[in-house]
Design goal:
Layout lengths: L1 E3 L5 E3 L8 H13 L3 H29 L13 H8 L1 H31 L6 H9 L6 H11 L8 H13 L16 E3 L5 E6 L6 E5 L4 H4 L15 E7 L23 E6 L2 E7 L5 E4 L7 E4 L19 H26 L3 H9 L4 H12 L1 H16 L3 H6 L11 H10 L5 H31 L1
Parallel strand pairs: 5-6
Antiparallel strand pairs: 1-2, 3-4, 4-10, 6-9, 7-8, 7-10
Helix pairs in contact: 2-15, 3-15, 4-9, 4-12, 4-14, 5-9, 9-12, 10-11, 12-15, 14-15
Length: about 450
């Protein structure tokens, strides 16, 4: 064999050696790992040991423990799983977990998407994102305590009901004297629904006296002093007052000095079950009805004495789960917004501008271009939140009060109650843990497939 020289003549020599395939593969493998595989395994061993001790062993032991009874000594086979699916508490927990799985990730992702898109066009976007993301810095325990106070039934304590009652009272008149009523000997009879009607009929020129008691001090404190109504020709007059004097020095049915008027009470004149006239007491407790009220009975409608609107029972059996989901969304909407905003920063602006130049509206640009381009990021957010929601425990445990905790039950809480509650049965608790694992696995599998698909691009 010969090789060519610079002058073109061939000179004898050896051809360049080509390394065998094994050598090339070994070098390639070494270049990828940076060292030999066994050495990499040595460095991975501590992490693998921790993974086995903290993840693999607990999973295997939970599966094993689920086949034994509460004492852990008697093998019961699949009895724990049968009991789990026949137990009403577990059925409620599964139903609530499904509600959580549908609502919480969907609402959090939707709000995160809206916040991320809208904040692109405002100057104070960074400050807004910081405020929305701030709840992520609060622990679930602290967030649960915060929202337990927010959802307090008393409007003077709970923020949600304080706002709700304020809006309600802006459009609806509140009753003036909740809980007030006449004395048994006051000449008024209570009808169905809580209204009070005079036994005697009203006559012009003969003022009626309607004494009441049991009014709340806050409702009476700023009232004017009661005044005896003067007779008026052709009109039925009278006075409604708070018949109470401190120290018991006053007389019953008599307007004593210093006794307070009951203003803004509605009064109806009723004949044969039909209302013929209406009026409202003045600031001094007096009232006047037209001549049509002659011979009618005076009725104080039940509305005067009904309890004021006290807001919504947020933590009651029907609303406790949506209320807790609301607190979860408050925490995790910022997480969704930050991830979606990062994905939105990588969207080509030329596509958006081209669509606008072609006449597309902002809604069409958002629906047909922005959302499809953000689909990978949205899937990451949804899957992450779904995995997180399946394990929700602390918010439900802290926010739901004792009477409503069964209605707000979720699988993780049921697992805790079965394993460490009053009727301890760790076999049943282990069965619930296995069920929870099986429910999370499909979501994790989809997430792994998505990650592999992304890595091939």
């Amino acid at each position: 064999m010969s090789t060519a020289t610079a002058g073109g003549a061939a000179t004898p020599g050896r051809a360049p050696s080509v390394p065998p395939a094994e050598t090339r593969d070994r070098k390639k493998k070494k270049s990828v790992l940076g060292t030999r595989p066994w050495l990499a395994a040595v460095f991975l061993l501590p992490a693998l040991a921790l993974l086995g001790a903290l993840v693999v062993y607990p999973i295997c032991y939970s599966v094993y423990r689920s086949f034994f009874d509460a004492s852990g000594n008697g093998f019961v086979g699949l009895d724990n799983y049968q009991e789990m699916f026949s137990d009403d508490a577990t059925k409620t927990a599964i139903k609530n977990n499904i509600i959580w799985l549908i609502l919480a990730p969907t609402v959090s992702t939707a709000l995160g998407l809206i916040f991320a898109v809208l904040t692109e066009r405002i100057r104070w976007a960074t400050a807004f994102k910081l405020i929305v993301f701030m709840p992520m810095a609060i622990s679930m325990l602290a967030a649960g305590i915060i929202f337990r106070l927010v959802y307090e039934q008393d409007p003077d304590k709970g923020v949600a009901n304080a706002m709700w009652v304020s809006v309600h009272d802006s459009f609806t008149e509140s009753p003036p004297f909740p809980g007030a009523h006449p004395r048994p000997d006051a000449g008024l009879t209570e009808s169905s629904g809580g209204a009070y009607t005079t036994e005697a009929t009203a006559k012009p020129g003969s003022p009626a006296s309607i004494p009441l008691v049991a009014a709340k001090r806050d409702d009476i404190g700023g009232a004017q002093t009661a005044k005896k109504a003067a007779p008026e020709a052709g009109k039925v007059t009278g006075t409604v007052w708070f018949d109470f004097t401190r120290g018991g020095r006053g007389g019953r049915g008599v307007i004593d000095k210093g006794e307070k008027a009951m203003a803004d009470l509605k009064i109806e004149a009723v004949k044969d079950g039909r209302v013929v006239a209406k009026t409202t007491t003045a600031a001094d407790g007096t009232f006047a009805l037209p001549a049509t009220a002659d011979g009618a009975q005076l009725r104080l409608p039940a509305w005067n004495f009904s309890e004021p609107y006290n807001g919504v029972d947020w933590l009651g059996p029907s609303l406790v789960t949506p209320a807790i989901i609301g607190s979860y969304v408050w925490i995790w909407a910022g997480f969704a917004m930050v991830l979606i905003a990062a994905g939105l920063a990588g969207v080509p602006r030329e596509l958006l501008e081209a669509a606008r130049m072609d006449g597309a509206s902002e809604w069409q640009v958002f629906r047909r271009i922005t959302v499809p381009l953000l689909a990978p990021v949205l899937s990451v957010v949804v899957v992450t939140l779904m995995i997180n929601v399946m394990k929700i425990f602390d918010l439900v445990y802290i926010i739901a009060p004792g009477p409503s905790q069964d209605d707000a039950n979720v699988l993780a809480l049921q697992l805790f109650q079965s394993s460490f509650g009053t009727n301890v049965n760790q076999g049943l608790g282990s069965a619930i843990a296995v069920l929870l694992l099986l429910l999370v696995l499909p979501v994790m599998f989809l997430n792994i497939r998505r990650i592999r698909r992304e890595s091939r691009r």
